[in-house]
Write a structure and sequence with these properties.
Strand order of the largest sheet of chain A: 1-2
Strand content of chain B: 35-45%
Largest sheet of chain A: 2 strands, antiparallel
Order of helices and strands of chain B: HHEEHHEEEHEEEEEEEEEEEEEH
Largest interface: A-B, 66 and 66 residues
Helix content of chain A: 55-70%
Oligomer: heterodimer
Shape of chain A: elongated
Distance between the termini of chain B: 55 Å
Radius of gyration of chain A: 33 Å
Strand content of chain A: under 5%
Number of domains of chain B: 3
Chain lengths: 692, 386
């Protein structure tokens, strides 16, 4: 009968020594009746040093370690960023002293100082009703607040139960509270996995110093055990079934050498001693398994085999060493460095050294696989924080533009405000270019990236219009839309809390169509929104009489609105038809009345209606602006709304929480339309007769 | 009379009609999009976008008739042709629009040809299997044939015609078939249950009855069913329950020959055979995000075999047919289990027309807005100069 493992003839020499030691010691243990059955992993997690502030260099170096997550290799700082974002709903955490932690610092604490980190309030609970449901106290806390792992732990069982029930419902039938439960339980599970990630390094496997196992395994860390994993398995087999267990597998000469080397008392164990030894080895195997499992969350080990696409977690490598007799040798350096990180959490010098060892072990392998090139670029990208800075500079530019309205004769202020729009735009474009380089893709592949691209587009078009007509209107609108776009980007990223550079599904794996169809359709959205922004200025200007009743002002806005709608229509039509051609190429049909396709069609239909109605005189200046504001609603529905429906082939982007924003947007636009209709009702007909 | 005709043509060619049609199409598209959440794309497409009239349930219970997209697009084509091509003023300011209008007409024509004549379906093959027919996603048929060693003639009845008027009975006769086939209670989505668990009003001899099910949002998941009676000339009757999900047809021996009746997805032949040699599917590492599907197939035609690769975004086009890598299964197959590859099959005589329409529209619009921009810039420079 075959047992579940195999012994190579090459390991025979080690085996001889191992068996001698095992059985010699087993005999000794038989006399004093004390088997090697120390405490388990749980009990031996050991004291963990109180955390101190991390050195900036260590934070930077740790953050630059590559990890495979979500199907791609990225810096661990990116992983930390989105892990914290989805857990806490913001980009920072606070430690127990109230100090602000960056995502990487938070991850460092979570991994290396779990006893502290489990008390950090990082779990965002949107509604305290959830806590009522799981029996967790929230006295003196806000309805929407953050809680620590430790605070939520008492309610975990109930939460898990409720989340499982909720998960069985179809997505559309779940209440917001049920969705929150599912998200929270996932976050708790992942956080728990991070807290225990280095248990394997901190674990004491209960191997007494003078025991047989200690002699068998001079290095009693998990890596040390794993490097000689086969010995444990042989020991277990011999104890379980005697020497006969080996006879089927070893050559006669090896067997003879074992017999010669083994002390007679080792072979003369009585059943009780044999059982005790067996129990000790099995207990050890159990602890090893538990410790290995704990390290199975972060895929930080690149395989040497170029054919293997999946990076491995330390736990996977260790488990396969014990269960499948797989050698850990290819990963030995990485594992050892990773383990040393866990062991030196309270020693900055040793920790920094271990970190460098980890880099030295991982980077060449990742480079050889061609998966490292973008890691430093991505570190730089997130460090530069292009989009938040762009937002700040857009606000600054808008303030300058506002000054030009207050002091219209200050020409230098006008020039300055125009120039002030360039740095935030440059930052935004640089950020987009960085993303393209990191992904090797065109600028728009996700819903998030549409925000960036649309914002950049409207600002560029605004600047072009400003250069053409120099009326400060386009400049103002450009700055304002820049602020709104970047604000939306920052908020949406936080709302989603998932990597904004995800792996693409197979059908999107085409740069040609992503460039042609997606960019043109997105430009169509941008134009519709820009035109609507001009119309807002027009309507508000009229209602507050900021335009001084000036016809040139209104006519200029009307011309710009009309022109931009026409410009947008070109892109919407061409982009939509290109999308149809892509669909025909990928799915076998040009048009399928899919919600996203319908959304694009609605924009085209409404813009066509506007242009034809204007041409026919059905609508004039005011009518054009009211229709243009409604166009923003149509664009909003197409851009965001159809994703909320959850049907069709374009159903990408998890837009939980977006519906409220979209509803608010539609209501605001409805109010603006009502304002326009009010103006229309009150306006003398003659005043509204001039054509753009 | 002439003035009346002129008024009609004026109205048909007017901007106002164009605007009305755009707005109605917009409304229809919006309502149809929302309704897809409840009823799925297939049902909504048929009701809203391939119909002359739609009855929209306002607030869920007030029926409001609306023109369907078929009618609206027909009117729009007319409006576009009369107003946007024939009667349009022709000068440098309008040439671009004229070209774009022609492009849009081409696009609508492509849609019409596709709707009337195109065929689509799918083929699922395990490695080593081959097929020269594809099955429809949505259309079903009753098939009758005599079992024999060689190829035999199949007698086919379009099942969907029955489905349009639920609850009736139909009897089919054919001089070459030794029985009359009566089909009753055709259900577009159903499941067979033992009589005590079913709510249907009929049952077969073996105690099974069809339980009607609500239509699936994914229409291809519907499995129709019907009761059938095969009546021999001497009056002998054989009751059968025909169900789209059955693995085997209903078979009965009549006059020494075995006859089979089946309710199955409609099948259509291709002028070539496809054999799946190898199917490769990959995920992004450590995720369930698909990164690649690829089928290596051999296309066999008149004894000539040619190896072809079909993958996502790279279909195989041949003799007017296009085969796309659509999906694979079984989705719950354990690692290492054999998988089948599914190809979507499309035959569309106007396949290339949308591309040409797109080119024409683009040329027209770019030309037009280029002209307009030039005028605008000239005006602005004059203004600034003054």
């Amino acid at each position: 009968m075959r047992s579940g493992f195999a012994i190579s003839r090459g390991s025979a020499a080690l085996l001889l020594v191992a068996l001698s030691l095992t059985f010699a010691s087993a005999a000794a243990a038989q006399s004093d009746g004390d088997a090697a059955n120390g405490s388990g992993v749980e009990a031996s997690a050991g004291p963990v040093a109180e955390r101190g502030a991390w050195d900036a260099e260590i934070v930077a170096r740790f953050g630059a370690l590559p990890i495979q997550d979500g199907g791609r290799v990225k810096p661990i700082s990116t992983y930390a960023y989105f892990q914290l974002l989805k857990t806490a709903g913001r980009r920072y955490a606070h430690d127990l002293d109230g100090e602000r932690l960056s995502p990487t610092e938070w991850l460092l604490d979570t991994l290396f100082h779990p006893e502290s980190a489990r008390r950090y309030r990082v779990f965002l609970v949107q509604d305290s009703a959830l806590l009522d449901a799981i029996g967790v106290s929230h006295v003196d806390r806000k309805r929407r607040d953050r809680y620590s792992f430790e605070e939520l732990a008492p309610g975990y069982s109930r939460l898990h139960e409720l989340a499982v029930q909720a998960n069985e419902l179809p997505k559309g039938r779940r209440t917001p509270l049920q969705n929150q439960m599912i998200n929270l339980v996932v976050n708790l599970i992942e956080y728990d996995a991070l807290l225990h990630q280095f248990d394997f390094a901190r674990a004491d496997f209960g191997i007494a110093e003078d025991s047989a196992l200690a002699r068998l395994f001079p290095d009693t860390t998990l890596i040390g055990l794993a490097s000689r994993a086969h010995l444990l398995r042989v020991a277990a087999a011999v104890l379980n079934r005697g020497m006969e267990a080996l006879e089927e597998r070893l050559a006669p000469e090896d067997l003879e050498r074992i017999r010669q080397l083994l002390p007679p008392e080792a072979l003369a164990l009585d059943d009780a001693a044999r059982e005790r030894e067996m129990a000790a080895v099995e207990a050890l195997l159990g602890r090893i398994d538990q410790a290995s499992q704990s390290a199975s969350h972060l895929a930080v080990l690149p395989p040497h085999d170029p054919e293997a696409s999946a990076w491995r977690t330390p736990g996977e490598v260790l488990i396969s060493a014990f269960l499948e007799d797989a050698s850990i040798e290819p990963y030995q350096d990485m594992l050892a460095a990773w383990e040393r990180l866990g062991l030196s959490a309270d020693d900055p010098v040793a920790f920094a050294a271990a970190l460098e060892e980890m880099h030295a072990a991982v980077t060449p392998v990742a480079k050889a696989r061609g998966e490292y090139r973008t890691v430093p670029i991505e570190v730089a990208f997130y460090r530069a924080d292009f989009f938040s800075r762009s937002l700040a500079l857009f606000i600054f530019a808008f303030i300058l533009v506002a000054i030009t309205w207050l002091f219209p004769r200050w020409k230098w202020a006008y020039v300055l405000s125009g120039a002030a729009l360039l740095p935030p735009l440059a930052l935004l474009i640089t950020g987009i270019v960085y993303r393209c380089i990191i992904r090797g893709r065109p600028p728009v592949t996700t819903l998030y990236e549409t925000i960036l691209f649309i914002t950049a587009s409207v600002v560029i078009v605004s600047l072009i219009i400003e250069v053409m007509n120099r009326r400060r209107l386009a400049l103002s609108v450009g700055a304002l839309l820049g602020i709104m776009g970047m604000f939306l980007a920052v908020k949406y990223e936080a709302l989603e809390g998932v990597d904004t550079m995800p792996s693409l599904i197979a059908v999107l794996d085409t740069n040609f169509w992503l460039t042609t169809h997606v960019l043109t359709v997105t430009l169509g959205y941008a134009a519709g929104l820009l035109a609507a922004a001009f119309s807002h200025v027009y309507l508000v200007g009229r209602i507050v009489r900021a335009d001084g009743g000036g016809m040139p002002f209104r006519q200029a806005l009307t011309r710009m609105t009309y022109g931009v709608i026409a410009f947008g229509l070109v892109f919407s039509v061409v982009g939509t038809v290109l999308g149809g051609i892509w669909a025909a190429d990928s799915w076998g049909r040009f048009w399928g009345w899919d919600p996203k396709e319908n959304g694009a069609l609605m924009i085209i239909l409404w813009e066509l209606a506007i242009l034809h109605a204007r041409k026919d005189g059905l609508i004039r200046e005011l009518g054009l602006h009211i229709a243009s504001v409604f166009n923003a609603v149509v664009v909003g529905f197409s851009w965001w709304g159809v994703n909320l429906l959850g049907v069709g082939l374009h159903s990408y982007g998890h837009t939980s929480g977006v519906s409220r924003g979209l509803t608010a947007f539609c209501l605001a636009e409805a109010a603006m339309i009502a304002l326009g209709l009010y103006l229309w009702a009150r306006a003398p007909r003659a005043a509204d007769s001039s054509r753009p | 009379m002439m003035s009346f005709l002129k008024r009609v043509i004026d109205a048909l060619a007017s901007y106002k009609l164009a605007c009305l049609l755009f707005v109605l199409l917009l409304l229809l598209t919006f309502l149809g999009t929302l309704e897809q959440v409840e009823h799925g794309i297939y049902e909504v497409t048929q009701r809203y976008f391939e119909s002359l009239v739609v009855i929209y349930p306002f607030l869920g219970f007030i029926p409001i008739p609306l023109p369907g997209a078929y009618l609206l697009l027909a009117l729009l084509s007319l409006n576009l042709f009369l107003g946007g091509v024939v009667r349009m003023r022709k000068n440098v300011r309008t040439y671009g629009i004229l070209i774009a209008h022609i492009g849009i007409l081409l696009l609508i024509a492509a849609g019409f040809v596709k709707h009337q004549y195109a065929r689509e379906g799918y083929i699922s093959l395990y490695e080593g299997e081959r097929a020269h027919e594809y099955e429809s996603y949505f259309d079903w048929e009753f098939a009758i044939w005599r079992d024999a060693d060689g190829p035999t003639r199949e007698y086919l009845i379009d099942a969907d015609r029955l489905g349009r008027s639920r609850g009736g009975r139909w009897t089919f006769r054919h001089p070459e078939i030794p029985f009359d086939l009566t089909v009753a209670n055709y259900l577009r989505n159903s499941v067979p249950r033992r009589l005590d668990a079913a709510t249907a009003d009929a049952a077969t001899d073996d105690g099974f009855a069809l339980e009607p099910l609500p239509l699936e949002v994914e229409a291809e998941a519907n499995l129709p069913g019907a009761y059938a009676i095969l009546r021999e000339p001497d009056g002998t009757e054989h009751a059968a329950l025909l169900w789209g999900g059955a693995r085997h047809p209903f078979s009965v021996e009549i006059d020494g020959a075995v006859w089979s009746v089946d309710l199955r997805r409609q099948r259509r032949a291709m002028p070539f055979t496809i054999a799946l040699n190898r199917f490769v599917h990959a995920f992004h590492p450590n995720t369930t995000i698909p990164s690649k599907f690829l089928s290596e197939v051999t296309r066999i035609e008149e004894g000539v075999a040619q190896d072809v690769q079909i993958s996502m975004n790279e279909p195989m086009r041949h003799r007017g047919y296009t085969l796309y890598q659509a999906s694979w299964g079984p989705q719950d197959a354990p690692p290492g289990a054999p998988l089948f590859s599914t190809f979507a099959v499309a035959w569309d005589p106007a396949e290339d027309l949308p591309l040409w329409a797109c080119v024409v529209i683009t040329i027209g619009l770019v030309f037009h807005f280029g002209v307009m921009l030039t005028y605008y810039l000239r005006r602005e420079s004059r203004r600034q100069a003054s």
